[in-house]
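Feature request disguised as a bug report, sorry. It would help if multi-protein outputs had a clear separator. Right now it looks like this:
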Amino acid sequence: MIRRCVVVGGAGAVGRLFAERLLADGARVAVIDTVEPGAEPAGTHYVRGDITDLGFRAAADLGHADLVVLAVPDAVALAAVPGLAGTLRPDALLVDTLSVKQPVTAAVRTHLPGVQAVGLNPMFAPSLGFEGRPVAAVVVNDGPRVGALLDLVAGWGARVVRLDEAEHDRLAGTSQALTHAAVLGFGAALVRLDADLGKIREIAPPPHNALLALLARITSGAPAVYWDVQAANPEAAAVRKELADGVRRVADLVEHGSEHEFAALLGELDAQLGEHAPHYRELCARMFTSL
């Protein structure tokens, strides 16, 4: 049973998402965070503290917990793991919500080899909720509490997708780092072009509006989240290089190639989509209808 929970970073968006769902399931939830009291979900027990420099109250809550969720930036979680070795119960479950899994997985296996642990990565903005959305799960040290938690997350309506840590980071590099870099690059180009968004909004076709919508969502989010996606993922540098090379390839083809070669590129890209192309065409049609 998972009844006594601690959510480190529970005043933030991801931490609140977990804390509120655990509360709704009847668990007692303590929140440890560095901010002033008042941002934590109603009904939680709040302890102001630093997970990398534990005080007595925070250590006591951690020592009694069935479940500890680290909903903090990558660097904070990595710094905290060694200090948890003498604090967590032997039968406790440790969960991280980091966007990059290889470093934290290695740290947990080194410092907490006997503690059940799983890495979760909700692949969506916390405000959207779990229902119908994917949660990547990397089992670090397996055990009965790991299975119970994954069943619980699935019961919240999420699609739990199990991966190992290397596969997770490869896929996150493509699905997150590549995507965010493309949108941010688009935004940086708008700045350099000194684009008049008032006029653009009057005439923009759906693809441009879709990119502007993505840009607005990213720029309204927490910079630390998007920084970790780009800076912490070991796959991200190679992904950004491929993105830059792809844009350069299009430019070279248009400036020095032919329409026939351009058509060949579109055919190559369509072949990459393969059997998934109809799904994404239909998805695009629905998106553009709303735009």
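(second protein starts here, but nothing in the output says so)
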Amino acid sequence: MGAFGVAVIIVIAAKTIAWLVQKKLRNAGLVDAIWAWTLGLLAAFYAAIGPGDSSLRLALALMGATWGGRLGTHLFIRNWGQPEDFRYAHFRQKWGDKADFNMFWFFQFQNVFTLLLSSMAFVPVAWRADAPPAVCWLLAAVIWLASIVGEGIADTQMERFRADPRNKGKVCRDGLWRYSRHPNYFFECLHWLAYVPLAIGAPWGWISLGAPLLMAWMLTKLSGMPMLEDEMARRKPGYAEYRRTTSALVPLPPKSS
């Protein structure tokens, strides 16, 4: 069985576990953590079996596993013991008696994007025979570090805001959230860009560009911002003004009220 076949088994097994847990808890939020952990595992898997340069594969394993471990753990802690995320709660209510059946296939459908992301970002690096130039190492390290630190700061600022009862019903404008409505999503896209310098010059290395583009499309057009922003506009009176004055993704100075 080829590497991709094993990757397919890994993602199907991971999402099946997520489905079994949600079936017991009636809370599908755990799938978000398992998604991140699975991608981190795939980075380590491709690094372990790839025939490429050993130093490059070690870097891939550390970069992917660290990112996936941090994000997955953050999402697990944030969602555990909390009401079901409004997205999954909406689907559960909409699907009614077919909720468990539909949720299983919805989880498995997400694997299409998991496999695309991991294949585009990790495979060109793990299969590269030679090490990239020093400038590419440096660029990858700077992008990766900025993405990890930036996303961690954004997550911490939002959790601190939510933990304060005085902020109930208010819009978070603290720190990075003053300059972007979704700074965590911005740094998420930036993370996938970190593998591009390591793939430059490798056979089929250009496909690594697809990973940050796919993630940006998913977050801005598919599953991230569209549903979330509609929900925030409904729940928080000040969100319409926040949306008008604050950049959607890339951190920029806010517009004048």
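Even a blank line would do. Unrelated, but nice: Residues 141 and 200 are 14 Å apart (CA to CA).
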